[in-house]
Write a structure and sequence with these properties.
Elements lengths: L1 H20 L1 H23 L5 E7 L4 H12 L5 E3 L5 H9 L5 E5 L5 E2 L5 E11 L2 H22 L6 E11 L3 H32 L1 H6 L5 H29 L9 H25 L3 H17 L12 H7 L5 H13 L7 H21 L4
Parallel strand pairs: 1-2, 1-3, 5-6
Antiparallel strand pairs: 3-5, 4-5
Helix pairs in contact: 1-8, 2-6, 2-8, 6-8, 6-9, 6-10, 6-12, 8-9, 9-12, 9-13, 12-13
Length: 368
Amino acid sequence: MKRYWTGILGQVQAFQRRFLRDKVSLFFTFLFPLIFLFVFGSIFKNQTVNFKVGIINHSHSQFAQQFVDNATKGKDSVLKVKDVKGLDDAKEKMKRSQIDGIIELPKDFGEQGPDGKPRGTIKVLYSKGSDQAGSTLTAVMNQTTNGVNKALGQPDAPIKVSSNAVGDEALSSFDYTFTGLLTFSLMSMGIFGLANTMPAEKKRGSYRRLRAAPFSPAQLIIASGIHYLVVALLSVATMFLVGTFVFHFKMRGDWLVFFPFLLLSAVAMIGLGLTIGGWAKNENQSSVLTNVVAMPLMFLSGVFFPVYLFPDWLQGVTKFVPVTPMVEGFRLVMTEHAGFGDIALQFGLVGLWVVVVYGAAIKLFRWE
């Protein structure tokens, strides 16, 4: 056993020395994911000039319905009304930054007062931590109600606006996207890195010499996995530093929950790359198979586009994509304070994929 692990650790050291000398590998491992981070971070850091709002109408008055119709049909308004199923759905969308605020009309809104004119108070709800957006949205609604009051000829402003911060602190668009970019970093390192490196080593005859050592496929798989796990953790640390200090990412979950899930996800992605690279005889085979595997993983798992934007039938397909539980787990922990119990399903699915891919990697490995 000592000789078995001595060979593995010696090979890990050899991999690391070779990796540090390979400028192309360093670029695709560290700089390539950061390029995506800067591109998406710059896009989602910008704020829109319009307010996306959900309107919750509890009133059955004709005046309230006219207010909703005018707000919905106002194409030139700064308010862009989005469809929501109810108050809970609107709060969830606001937390995910799909909308900027909620306009709530209470049950008595629009009912006639003693003077026969409609009265009521419009409630503006915004997320905690988004005070600037809440204040601006409240000012917009005050301007709207001033126009309504003027039209009603009421000096005492029967239509009023109140505002409240609700729920947790809102996620920025970048916070939500960062979790997908983190998964993409692991995937690009594991699949694009290993799947192309191993066939190149076969072509140079490096594995043939290891086989004569003798060195078993399992030892080579384990050594490669340990080396790339270290590289993956360094890459993720770099992304967190840039995301935190440049784009002001806020970690909402527990690091003690996040780190074990990160390790398991990195091991799974590395195993997928080992399976492809270990089976392929040359770079031509690995490049084709890499694209066939990577494209569905990237675009059907929520890495770049949230799964809830997909059609219902496609959302069902995403459940069978290996990367989906990783993206879901990262987002639950990093943006929604999830604990071990909340991501038990994701832990189990990723763990199952680890068993599958490493079993396949050892079984399908070719020395040449």
